[in-house]
Amino acid sequence: MKPIRLTTENRNALFKNFFEKFKKELDDFSFNLNDTSITVSTKIGEPAKEKITVLYSQQAYIRMMALVDHYNTEVGWYGLVNKVDDKTYFVYDVKVCKQYVTGGKVDTEDADMVEFFDSLTDEEANAMHFQAHSHVKMDTTASGTDLQNQADIVKSMGNSGFYIFQIWNKSNDINTYIYDIDNNVFYDRKDVILDIVDEAGTVSDFIASTKTLVTEKKYYPYYTKSDVKVFGTGKKKDYEPFYLPGYYNNYGGDW
According to a count of CB atoms within 10 Å of the terminal CB, is the N or C end of the chain lower? Predict the structure, then answer.
């Protein structure tokens, strides 16, 4: 997470952090006589202490998955979102506009977009805080065009509201960007949890409820004196038959 816009408080904190680091570098400089320059960097933002949750309704999730699965080109869509609180967003439906697509791009015409937005009800228009597209089989890193699109939309919103951007692919990798303009905070994928919800709860809750019911059965290979080798030598050793959990552990098991 990091600030969307740098406030006076943000700037003062950055200046303080920068000059503390600069002072330390100056203090160390005299002990490194071969140095001819000092480089100081200040990190803006840090991982969110409390994760942000984006919930999907079954309908929304299935429709988005269907779009990504069906088209072998990029495809884009919008989502209708309820903000539950500052840490939780609920995507409950999906809308698709007229678009022209290739393997690496989604284009729209201004006239088609006007017609699309005119077709929405007031409730739908007020809930449209979500935009996503597929990268097909490529990774979900935002391109320069994607980032510029995000910046343009957020800038047009002024000083209030929120917007969620996502990039999907056919491997079911989902990259999420959340702009909480009301609280001046930007979240990226490392700050976000994605989940699906139905009448009975979330998918994560369901999986958690099965933990005491599903037990992984451990398998430990059985070796005889004819096929046991001393690790690191490749030489057979005359052992009696036994289980070798250490070998199993070396290849991903537990003991």
Answer: C
Q: Which helix (H) or strand (E) holds 9?
A: helix 8-29
Asked if residue 90 and residue 174 are part of one domain, the reply reads yes
Same domain, 139 and 176: yes
Shared domain check, 244 and 131: no
CA distances from 136 to 47, 48, 73 (A): 28, 29, 6
Residue with tokens 């739908």: 124
Q: Are strands 88-95 and 52-57 parallel, antiparallel or unpaired?
A: parallel
- Looking at the 3D structure of the chain, how many domains does it have? 3
- Kindly report the pTM of this predicted structure: 0.76
Please check whether residues 254 and 194 belong to one and the same domain: no
Write out pLDDT tens, residues 125-180. Answer: 999 999 999 999 999 999 999 999 999 999 999 999 999 999 999 999 999 999 99
Asked if 137 contacts 171 with a C-beta cutoff of 8 angstroms, the reply is yes
Q: Is the dihedral of CA 124, 181, 175, 169 positive or negative?
A: positive
Tell me the CATH number at 190: 3.40.140.10
Q: Which domain holds residue 32?
A: 1-46
Q: Strands, DSSP E only, in the chain? A: 2-3, 52-57, 76-85, 88-95, 100-102, 105-107, 128-134, 162-168, 174-180, 185-187, 192-198, 201-202, 222-223, 242-243
User: Domain check: are 63 and 39 in the same one?
Assistant: no
Task: Give me the phi and psi of 199, to 5 degrees please.
Answer: -60, -25
Task: Please tell me whether residues 89 and 151 are part of one structural domain.
Answer: yes
Phi, psi of 232 (to 5 degrees): 90, -15
Torsions phi, psi for 247 (to 5 deg): -65, -45
Question: Which among 190, 195, 196 is positioned nearest to 177, based on CA atoms?
Answer: 190
